[in-house]
Design goal:
- This protein is 28% helix and 22% strand.
- The protein has 2 helices and 3 strands.
- Strands 1-2-3 form a 3-stranded antiparallel sheet.
- The longest helix has 22 residues.
- The protein is extended.
């Protein structure tokens, strides 16, 4: 018999979340930083005319996972725009560095 690699059985992922997490957090600003080994995404809510914005959630992830996340976000925006029309951005709403 030849040694052929066997595919491991697929595992059905079960996702659990607390009620607090299921309510989500609204964010209207995201800050992204990175090192050579990880990306840090901070999600904030900025209230109009307020000088202080608190981080509501921080996600730390690997570069590979962030690239997969970027692709799925791009795909979802394309599907959204195909169904509901383009999402307009003002001239000042592009990436900020």
């Amino acid at each position: 018999m030849a040694d052929t690699p066997t595919k491991p059985p697929e595992v059905q992922l079960q996702v659990q979340m607390t009620e607090e997490v299921s309510n989500g957090q609204y964010s209207n600003l995201a800050l992204v930083n990175h090192t050579d080994s990880e990306f840090v995404l901070d999600f904030l809510y900025v209230q109009p005319q307020q000088p202080l914005a608190r981080v509501r959630s921080r996600i730390i992830t690997s570069p590979r996972h962030l690239k997969r996340l970027l692709k799925v976000l791009q795909d979802n925006v394309q599907h959204y725009e195909a169904r509901f029309g383009p999402i307009p951005l003002g001239e000042d709403e592009g990436p900020r560095h």
